């Protein structure tokens, strides 16, 4: 548990060094500097922002009181006191910090040794008296095990904590490491013994979905199990926990809601532009698995959204499910190297033959951008893996992620766009050439040749997380390239008609209301046009809109597709059309405790039905984002290949093998 505090301090320090938070004291207290990934920076930014929001709200509402106090539980090497003192916000507020005795001893030694810190504390007295390790006029360090409530109460009394003045309790990922009976007793003790108090809690939530399972496994491996999750698995349970233990007001929201509703738009944009970023799924999943709670008693709640005109989006309970779809492992594909990947593309190049390209994954025990291609073929009801022999592959492929592959004939597929890193997307167009006679019943090596195409710098190709969809207009074949990201623009709303024979952009008239810019959406051919569904918008918010690019005599027209009930906004899903029904598979969505399964939209009536995926026969968490899927209409089978990603600081989870979903029950006419 103490190790998690040290790691947290280093991560906060790295976020400060990149400009996410302003805190010149973190480096002095953390001691060591280590560069973290942008995803970690964002995660610790939103944590620090939530705590600062509540602390400053408390100080503002109590500024007329002659004395106030802040009690930080499990403070570790946090810099709260020094930041507030440096900003001249502690005119009449005493800050008490409690942690294990050896932790506070190390912190006290640091403060005494570093002049910049010791000067902000001032004269010290009473050190070494009981649990009081360090004592300044406005700053007290106490070494006590929080799970021993009687010792904590006695130490706080000796240090001068006053239960009659306004008090803010802070617990950042602390109580969850304690047995529930002990943390519940601490919450109740705080409500019963302080007449005017607020309690700020920041912890994890949603333990049973795939991300939550990876999160729990991580902390268990660190020997720091998250005890509160079993009894308090969601925000509502945490709210009931506090209201049932003496607190009269309690507000709670997950960090997606907090970022949307309590961080001003200009500040959101500042954070989003600090460094190249392309881990949206992991960022939003991390935020949906942490919450901030503010409870109060005897005073106004320490919770005022900075944007009062914005209400927190809420669903009226879980998303209603119309049924379930069984998921089955493909036994003969277990352990096949190279299928653990994300950000790749899988395409049906022949009947029952699937080619998978690109992405980031695991091969030979290492995580890396994937250069190797893989082929899957189905014969006699079983999927088998075959080999791909490649020509000109290593030089021309470019280790790309988030590209598209469109099979345009029996022997040709066109690769459009993709990236190597979030700041590089100059990968252009490639033809993939393969034999016309490859048979699924007799899988042998599949020979794939790459042909580099010029010009490679067309605007249509310099993007990733886009879509390419085949359309026929006036007898000519085009790829409709839409949306995505670029190195210059985090979200695109433009489109191109790429003539497949000449590989040139063609001007074709498009009328109607232009859809909101988006990336990580889905696109399918339907009735001569293109169906666009979901995606992530310019404000990094999932979209729930569905549009049809409808063919007209002189061009095309955008037309909104109304669904009822409304489609839950999502992105990073895949999609297929079958007999007038749009199938959306997986993805990431907000504001609901469930994870996306399969959504079926009747394109004639607009009826929108959600189905949960039954994963009881899978031995591992199934993450349905950054995956690819191939639909076999004759068998009504959907094959999901790859998927997953970096689960914040909890490690990388990649679906270990393809999964077969039988859709026969939900696609009966």
Automatic annotation (TrEMBL):
One of its GO terms (molecular function) is tRNA methyltransferase activity. One of its GO terms (biological process) is tRNA methylation. It holds the Pfam family LCM. Signal peptide: none annotated. InterPro entries: Gal_Oxase/kelch_b-propeller, Kelch-typ_b-propeller, Ppm1/Ppm2/Tcmp, SAM-dependent_MTases_sf. Interacts with RNF144B/IBRDC2. This is tRNA wybutosine-synthesizing protein 4. It comes from Grallaria varia (variegated antpitta).
């Amino acid at each position: 548990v103490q190790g998690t505090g040290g790691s947290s301090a280093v991560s906060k320090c790295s976020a400060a060094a990149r400009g996410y938070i302003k805190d010149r004291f973190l480096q002095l207290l953390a001691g060591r500097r280590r560069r973290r990934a942008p995803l970690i920076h964002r995660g610790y930014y939103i944590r620090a922002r939530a705590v600062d929001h509540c602390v400053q709200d408390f100080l503002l509402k109590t500024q007329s009181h002659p004395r106030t106090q802040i009690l930080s539980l499990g403070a570790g090497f946090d810099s709260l006191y020094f930041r507030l003192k440096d900003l001249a916000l502690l005119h009449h507020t005493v800050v008490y910090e409690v942690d294990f005795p050896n932790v506070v001893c190390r912190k006290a030694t640091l403060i005494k040794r570093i002049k910049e810190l010791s000067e902000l504390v001032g004269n010290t007295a009473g050190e070494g008296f009981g649990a009081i390790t360090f004592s300044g006029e406005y700053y007290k360090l106490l070494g006590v095990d929080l799970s021993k409530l009687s010792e904590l109460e006695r130490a706080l009394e000796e240090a001068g904590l006053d239960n009659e003045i306004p008090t803010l309790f802070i617990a950042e990922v602390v109580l969850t490491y304690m047995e529930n009976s002990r943390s519940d007793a601490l919450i109740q003790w705080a409500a019963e013994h302080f007449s005017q108090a607020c309690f700020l809690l920041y912890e994890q939530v949603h333990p049973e979905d795939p991300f939550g399972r990876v999160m729990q496994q991580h902390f268990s491996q660190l020997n720091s199990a998250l005890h509160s999750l079993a009894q308090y698995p969601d925000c509502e349970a945490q709210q009931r926990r506090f209201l049932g233990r003496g607190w009269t007001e309690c507000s709670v929201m997950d960090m997606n809601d907090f970022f949307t509703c309590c961080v001003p738009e200009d500040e959101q944009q500042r954070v989003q532009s600090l460094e190249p970023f392309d881990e949206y799924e992991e960022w939003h999943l991390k935020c949906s698995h942490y919450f901030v709670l503010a409870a109060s008693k005897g005073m106004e709640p320490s919770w005022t959204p900075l944007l009062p005109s914005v209400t927190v989006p809420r669903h009226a309970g879980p998303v209603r499910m119309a049924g379930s779809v069984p998921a089955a492992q493909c036994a003969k594909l277990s352990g096949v190297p190279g299928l653990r990947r994300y950000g790749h593309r899988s395409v049906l190049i022949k009947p029952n033959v699937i080619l998978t390209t690109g992405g980031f994954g695991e091969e030979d025990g290492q995580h890396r951008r994937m250069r190797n291609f893989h082929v899957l073929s189905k014969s006699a009801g079983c999927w088998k893996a075959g080999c791909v022999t490649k020509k000109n592959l290593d030089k021309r492929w470019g280790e790309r992620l988030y590209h598209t592959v469109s099979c345009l004939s029996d022997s040709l597929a066109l690769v459009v766009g993709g990236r190597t890193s979030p700041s590089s997307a100059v990968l252009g167009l490639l033809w993939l050439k393969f034999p016309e006679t490859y048979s699924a019943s007799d899988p042998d090596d599949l020979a794939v040749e790459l042909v580099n195409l010029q010009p490679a710098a067309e605007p249509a190709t310099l993007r990733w997380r886009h879509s390419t969809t085949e359309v026929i207009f006036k007898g000519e074949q085009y790829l409709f390239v839409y949306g995505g990201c670029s190195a210059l623009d985090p979200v695109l709303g433009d489109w191109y008609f790429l003539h497949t024979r000449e590989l040139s952009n063609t001007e074709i008239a498009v009328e109607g209301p232009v859809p909101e810019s988006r990336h990580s959406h889905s696109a399918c051919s339907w009735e001569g046009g293109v169906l666009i569904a979901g995606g992530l918008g310019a404000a990094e918010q999932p979209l729930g809109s569905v549009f049809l690019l409808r063919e007209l005599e002189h061009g095309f027209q955008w037309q909104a597709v109304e669904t009822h009930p409304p489609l839950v906004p999502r992105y990073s899903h895949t999609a297929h059309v079958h007999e007038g029904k749009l199938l959306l598979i997986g993805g990431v969505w907000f504001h609901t405790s469930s994870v996306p399964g399969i959504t079926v939209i009747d394109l004639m009536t607009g009826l929108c039905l959600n189905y949960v995926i039954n994963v009881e026969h899978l031995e591992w968490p199934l993450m349905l984002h950054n995956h690819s899927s191939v639909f076999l209409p004759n068998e009504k089978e959907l094959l999901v290949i790859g998927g997953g990603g970096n689960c914040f600081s909890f490690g990388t989870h990649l679906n270990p093998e393809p999964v077969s979903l039988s859709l026969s029950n939900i696609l009966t006419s």
